[in-house]
């Protein structure tokens, strides 16, 4: 390596996000860096200039300006600029000039994109460190574009595929030839390019069976000395996380953050139409509130998680102010909540050692439904392998549950007052015991018991053998639809909380406690709506958990007239958004957010439409009583 490159390597190593990169990667970057000199007061970039390099200050300093001429930022040696221009259609949005004589390193765009794609720490540093820049850069545009755009908008090219019986060497050569960091593996009879996807002679379509990435080749082939003439299906990943072609961009981002993915295939009826990489997400306009998930996974203690948990309310308020709907806000907040659980479980295993048997940690209730908001307690449980022996394994899983639940409490997720937490031995069961438990609830439906246990019918795996949660959901969906007594008992419980409307459609207030003369929009609105929707969903065998998605399945099941479903969707959305906006206003005013609202604080529009929404709830509860008679 030349002396100049050695000097560049030494400089890059001193600063994030390069300091955490492998030695060879930094060496490769150094060999592609170009250097330019700018005199003091000279312009480096003007508004609208094209940009195709990430810029790093070697010496000197620069000033960055807003379009109106106001000073935005000042950077010195080691500072990065230009990344927002690379992410925003290669166009400079914030002009830059040299404050003093300066040397600038120019790192090519192709290197920048490759680093974002391959190293999540690099990508997150760029995203999070400059999320304020992004807000300024897109201030004149629709800041909610991820929320309304299809995920396919993130796809930059057709998918590159190869037969499952191709060799590892052939696969690596194809990735190099195509300049991609991932390759989709299709069944052996499949073609090797997206444009040639056609039906077989028997009329069946070709299907994707796996994926291989640069990282997989490094960790599974190169580092292990795996034979290059072996077929690719021996080392490909088969536990695939994918999205449907109709999914939205925000769903793609949430999936990648939640599962810590670098590549997300998009499918149309099982046929791959493209792959979204981290670099595609970084390049696209995105919501800074979602970047918190990446931050969570970089914290190394409960104390550090506690510090960043204080930013959850800011994320919530930003989503509200960006006009996201209740489904989007609930999904984002649920993913953030799950990320805290996942990181705490990682830390717990580091502290306690590897688990003695496999397990699955469950989220229950609103988090499982993707309907969590800013005020929430923790509802969770454990599925244990059928080999579980309390004498051998009980101490470990008790300690694990205490570590996670205490950690969640420290991060603002309060303990469940009803004791529905993994710390309760009652809610640590084996796979077989959980099936017996749910079967007993459905075969012998005691309304009083189901009143406390209905939350378990909203469950999702967040760590460990998460497929066990899916198996349990499938078991519940298959059995519940055949149990009319159980459905009748669940329906009776769903009628226990009524909307706050009097005989003349006047609001009925809470009569005691600190919130007297107010309406609890959760207890008297969104919760009973979720309860009655759950009953219909169980009746049609729906495996969906989100209330809006359950309503789609209920339409297909035909147990509720179509007109009532659209009314239910509108009622749930309106009550949810009044509740959400009320909480956001509380946070912005420095008050403790709650679920209660005083009618005098409602606009005439809100009062009128809330009454209509509560009337929809009341009518739907009457229909529920009729549909599932005791």
Automatic annotation (TrEMBL):
GO terms for molecular function: [protein-PII] uridylyltransferase activity. Residues 17-115 form the Cyclic nucleotide-binding domain. It holds the Pfam family cNMP_binding. Residues 155-230, 236-292 form the CBS domain. The keyword Nucleus does not apply. Keywords: CBS domain. InterPro entries: CBS_dom, CBS_dom_sf, cNMP-bd_dom, cNMP-bd_dom_sf, Diverse_CBS-Domain, DUF294_put_nucleoTrafse_sb-bd, GlnD_Uridyltrans_N, RmlC-like_jellyroll. The keyword Nucleus does not apply. This is CBS domain-containing protein. It comes from Neptunomonas antarctica.
């Amino acid at each position: 390596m030349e002396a100049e490159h050695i000097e560049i390597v030494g400089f890059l190593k001193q600063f994030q996000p390069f300091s955490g990169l492998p030695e060879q990667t930094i060496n490769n970057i150094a060999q592609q860096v170009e250097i330019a000199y700018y005199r003091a007061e000279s312009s480096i970039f003007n508004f609208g200039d094209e940009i195709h390099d990430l810029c790093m200050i070697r010496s000197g300093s620069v000033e960055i300006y807003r379009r109106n001429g106001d000073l935005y930022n000042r950077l010195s040696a080691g500072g990065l600029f230009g990344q927002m221009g690379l992410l925003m259609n290669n166009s400079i949005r914030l002009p830059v000039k040299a404050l003093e004589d300066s040397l600038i390193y120019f790192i090519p765009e192709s290197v920048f994109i490759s680093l974002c794609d391959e190293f999540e720490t690099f990508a997150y540093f760029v995203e999070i460190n400059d999320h304020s820049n992004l807000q300024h850069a897109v201030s004149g545009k629709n800041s909610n574009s991820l929320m309304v755009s299809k995920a396919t908008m993130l796809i930059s090219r057709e998918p590159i595929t190869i037969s499952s019986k191709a060799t590892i060497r052939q696969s690596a050569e194809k990735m190099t030839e195509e300049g991609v960091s991932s390759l989709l593996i299709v069944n052996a009879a499949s073609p090797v390019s997206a444009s040639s996807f056609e039906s077989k002679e028997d009329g069946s379509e070709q299907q994707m069976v796996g994926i291989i990435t640069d990282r997989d080749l490094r960790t599974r082939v190169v580092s292990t000395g795996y034979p290059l003439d072996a077929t690719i299906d021996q080392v490909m990943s088969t536990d695939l996380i994918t999205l449907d072609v109709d999914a939205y961009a925000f769903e793609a981002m949430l999936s990648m953050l939640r599962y810590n993915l670098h590549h997300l295939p998009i499918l149309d009826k099982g046929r791959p139409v493209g792959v979204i990489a981290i670099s595609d997400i970084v390049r696209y306009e995105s919501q800074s509130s979602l970047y918190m998930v990446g931050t969570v996974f970089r914290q190394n203690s409960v104390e550090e998680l506690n510090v960043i948990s204080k930013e959850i309310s800011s994320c919530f308020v930003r989503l509200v102010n960006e006009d996201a709907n209740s489904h989007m806000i609930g999904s984002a907040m649920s993913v953030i909540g799950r990320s805290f659980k996942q990181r705490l479980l990682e830390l717990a295993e580091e502290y306690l050692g590897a688990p003695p048997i496999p397990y699955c940690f469950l989220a229950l209730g609103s988090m499982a439904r993707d309907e969590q908001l800013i005020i929430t307690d923790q509802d969770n449980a454990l599925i244990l392998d059928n080999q579980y022996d309390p004498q051998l394994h009980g101490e470990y899983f008790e300690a694990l549950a205490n570590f996670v639940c205490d950690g969640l409490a420290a991060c603002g997720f309060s303990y469940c007052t009803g004791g529905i937490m993994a710390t309760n031995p009652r809610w640590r069961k084996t796979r077989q015991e959980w099936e017996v438990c749910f079967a007993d609830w459905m075969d012998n439906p005691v309304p009083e018991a189901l009143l406390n246990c209905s939350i378990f019918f909203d469950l999702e795996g967040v760590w460990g053998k998460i497929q066990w949660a899916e198996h349990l959901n499938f078991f519940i969906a298959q059995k519940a639809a055949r149990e009319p007594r159980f459905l009748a008992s669940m329906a009776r419980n769903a009628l226990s909380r009524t909307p706050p409307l009097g005989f003349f459609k006047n609001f009925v207030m809470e009569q005691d406690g600190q919130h007297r003369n107010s309406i609890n929009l959760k207890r008297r609105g969104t919760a009973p709506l979720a309860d009655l929707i759950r009953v219909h969903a169980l009746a049609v065998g729906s495996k969906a958990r989100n209330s809006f998605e359950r309503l789609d399945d209920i339409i297909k099941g035909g147990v509720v007239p179509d007109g009532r479903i659209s009314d239910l969707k509108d009622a749930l959305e309106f009550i949810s958004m009044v509740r959400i906006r009320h909480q956001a206003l509380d946070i912005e005013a420095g008050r403790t957010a709650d679920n209660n609202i005083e009618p005098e604080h409602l606009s005439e529009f809100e009062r009128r439409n809330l009454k209509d929404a509560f009337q929809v709830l009341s009518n739907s509860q009457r229909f529920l009583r009729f549909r599932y008679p005791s």
